[in-house]
Amino acid sequence: MSKTIIVCSRDLDYGTGTQCKYMLKTFDEDQTVEKVYFIGPRSAHGYSPKIFSQVIPVKGKYFITKVPFFAFYCNETIKRLISKNNIDLITLHSSIMAEDYGIKTEATFHSLHRSIIQNFPKTPSYLIATAFHLVFSYFDKKTIQNADKVYFVSDKILTEAKKFYPDYQAKFHLKSNTVDRSLFYPLSEIEKQKVKENLGLADHKKNILYVGRLEPFKGILDLIQIIIKLNDPFVRLLIIGDGSLVGHVQRYPFVKHLGQLDHEILSKFYNIADIFVFPSKNESYGLALMEAIYCKTPVVAFKPDGKKYLTASDAMIKHGENGFLVKDEQEMLETIRFLIKRGR
Predict the structure, then answer these.
(1) The whole model's pTM is what?
(2) Domain-located, residue 179
(3) What is the DSSP letter of 323?
(4) CATH number of the domain within which 199 lies
(5) What is the percent of the chain with per-residue pLDDT over 90, rounded to a whole number?
(6) What is the pLDDT of residue 302?
(7) Residue 183 falls inside a structural domain
(8) What total of structural domains would you count in the chain?
(9) What is the domain range of residue 269?
(10) Can you give the three-state secondary structure of 216-227, one letter per residue?
């Protein structure tokens, strides 16, 4: 029996978007699936004609303005599609103003808004962001409340969901993120040199890589300050991603901002990076971190302490083997300096 499915995601980039595209590929190859309606910020390309895109242009420059706009219009689009089609499954990769659609609904959470704000500093900008995330947690609850099954991408976020939403934990399940090993693997030294030459990076500078949103809660501002304190003219910070802090990061002479790149070519940058730094202090999984590890890139991330650092980095990094877990910004600075000296 053929099935018609709705897939919803606010992102087609970063970790959430990567997993959503993997799901679309799986449905595309599934012979029992006749039609898939993808609701997202832009059309999904590279699939067969049975994947139909329903585009909701995300409004606003900032993350906090994009969330409510997409949440409302995604819910409206789902109801419109249901009224005109026989839908068998709705799968959500974004928290929206979900309703009880009377159709099997599954939701995958890559983060929770209440989790993000747990260790925000008490500064004016972060207090404003905290207020917005508390409001947006309403979308999380609505989605959890009305889904038949709710998946979480790591034990960390699953544990937090049980704490925040205990009434619904009977429907909670763990579904870890996956990395495409056909894309993310280590290159030989000869291959790396060719990539550097093709990218115009074949000089004597050491490349520190950041991949992710350019938003305050991702820790990019802390990383900028660490590089400033490093004070090494032969260090370059490669930044891949987009967000509200684009203008801020671009003003530093040691930064080479590459913008938002196709996921399929990220492996090249992981391979030519001397160090991959993951400065987020609250992360449910960290797909970019795992991709870098698969490329054998030295990685540095905060070790969770249950208070200030609420990451899941220790689930991926074996300290001293495939990366380094640090206790604070000073230790991150010292570790980066150590790795740079070791590589010279």
Answers:
(1) 0.83
(2) no
(3) B
(4) 3.40.50.2000
(5) 68
(6) 96
(7) no
(8) 2
(9) 189-342
(10) HHHCHHHHHHHH
